[in-house]
Write a structure and sequence with these properties.
mainly alpha; 99 residues
């Protein structure tokens, strides 16, 4: 029980502290850091890691059932909603990351 509580507290600290460096980027144009993270973090980096770990990643996707890909997409959409809500909670906590 104590180990679980420690992990929850540690996770909360890490989740909340990730936005602190972004408060130093206020001089950048609004949204430029989000665009950078969107382009590289969601597309280029993921595909680069996928092909580094598994050279035939496109074959694996082609062999997957549509049902599995739909489930995967649904969970990804839920992850995105969670990320949006996290961003709103960070803003409500006073850690504005963008002007």
């Amino acid at each position: 029980m104590l180990n679980g509580s420690i992990l929850i507290v540690l996770g909360t600290i890490l989740q909340g502290s990730f936005a602190l460096p972004m408060t130093r980027t206020r001089g950048l144009a609004g949204g430029s850091t989000r665009r950078w993270r969107f382009r590289y973090g969601l597309f280029l980096l993921n595909w680069a890691l996928a092909f580094a770990a598994m050279p035939n990643a496109t074959d694996a996707l082609a062999a997957s059932r549509i049902r599995d890909l739909v489930i995967l997409t649904a969970f990804g959409a839920q992850w995105g909603v969670g990320a949006i809500l996290l961003g709103r909670s960070i803003r409500n906590a006073g850690l504005r990351t963008c002007p």
